[in-house]
Specification:
Layout lengths: L4 E5 L20 E2 L2 E2 L2 H9 L4 E6 L4 H8 L8 E6 L8 H5 L1 H4 L4 E5 L2 E4 L3 H11 L3 E7 L7 E5 L6 E6 L8 E9 L3 H6 L11 H10 L3 E5 L5 E4 L3 H18 L6 H8 L4 H8 L6 H9 L3
Parallel strand pairs: 1-4, 1-6, 4-5, 8-12
Antiparallel strand pairs: 2-3, 6-11, 7-13, 8-11, 9-10
Length: 292
Amino acid sequence: MNGYKGIILAGGSGTRLYPSSGFVCKQLFPIYDKPMIYYPLTTLILGGITEVLVISTPRDLDLIKSGLGDGSRFGISIEYAVQETPAGIAQAFLIAEEFLAGSPSVLILGDNLFYKSAFRKFFQGAIQANEGATIFGYSVPDPQRFGIIESDPETGKVLSLVEKPMEPKTSIAAVGLYIYDETVVEKTKSLESSHRGELEITDLNNLYLQEGRLKARNFTRGDFWIDAGVFEALNDACNFVRLNQSYTGLLIGSPEEASLHVGNISKEQLYEQMKQLKSSDYVDYLLKLSGS
């Protein structure tokens, strides 16, 4: 749709969620009424992305593939790639090189959930305006734990990006959603592994910063972001989705609904999909949405 391809990085060993992650990968854990991976997939669909690569571990990839399929029911295409050994977020671009084939891209972490009023307009606007790399910021109470963004409030141009600073200049943390131009793979190849043995996403972003081509789009008061990679955050994410859906009567993180809204599928196609499934609150909602 917009020339950008999407990557969901759903790898890693999920050690922070052990022992549950010893049975099934965290991206298939439920966040209230949907598997975790539905939320980043919905984000990409709302951004107008129609070609998606899911990267996961050898153990987990077939399970994810059995749930999402080839993406046709969402009006998109989904491909899959194995991450044999986790070696940093930026490693995703080396794994995805053939899939990207020189295209610009959007990377989202498989355990990140975003919520914002008019999110589709906000996200698609960021993609359309991207001229190098765009990162997203969210205000946090403990900035020493994150990569912290200092940016020009007028232009969004990033002035500094520091990983876990002792004396942070702002409270705006870089979160797990990134937009890159077609040079991202070559830039990733130039990176050296950190002391952790990983290709750091902050190092990649700083290459764009050095070129003066890194911008930030910040979420604001009332927006919601969470990294659901630990039990406390997973519980908070479940509660957020439950409360929001209960009080509004609207779903959060439904790729079928997002696909309908962006025009990937029709109401008739949605109805045909849902009528083949047994009744549940989720299915009944989508049947009603399809006009049945």
